[in-house]
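#lab-general

N.A. 3:47 PM
ok so I finally got the sequence cleaned up, no stray characters, all 184 residues accounted for. can someone with queue access submit it? mine expired

B.Y. 3:52 PM
send it over

N.A. 3:53 PM
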Amino acid sequence: MATGTNIDVNTLVDEHSDYLLSFAMSKLKDLDLAKDLVQDTFVSAITKLDTFQQRSKLRTWLTSILNRKIIDHWRKAETRYTDPVSSFFSQDRKQGHWLESQGNNKTLETIEDQITKEETNQELADCLDKLPEKWKGIVVSKYLEEKASEDICKEYDITTSNLWVIIHRAKLVLRDCLQTKWKL
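B.Y. 4:20 PM
back already:
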């Protein structure tokens, strides 16, 4: 099968840059970021031209590379914006865990780490106090007391879907509160 090694780089950029920029803008709505990701796409494509096996059109291959770069950007952005709260909780929806209880290797912690953890826990507690009582009770039940979702629903007389809506909204409030405290 023929490879893409006989493709002229200048022609590649000239023929596909406008299309790729338009595609990126439709997803990002940020011209500078779109240009950066299109440039990254060309760099990746040019370094991998010898692996292009022409199973698809060149534009399709380039668009696929760009789309992966956009997805990676959004994943990084989501992590950056959700980490303050999400880092306190495991992502296992079946069994919620407060992550502090999972750390058994206290011998490696320095005094500074311990102080930071205590301050962080205090800030989280302050933010928890800002939640409506019902939300606070649900978050505490789910993540600190590690109660089953079914038990929490019975205790608060809510549906499972209502439980997840409350948890989602509470996490957003906690995230915003912690971001304000940490001035992220």
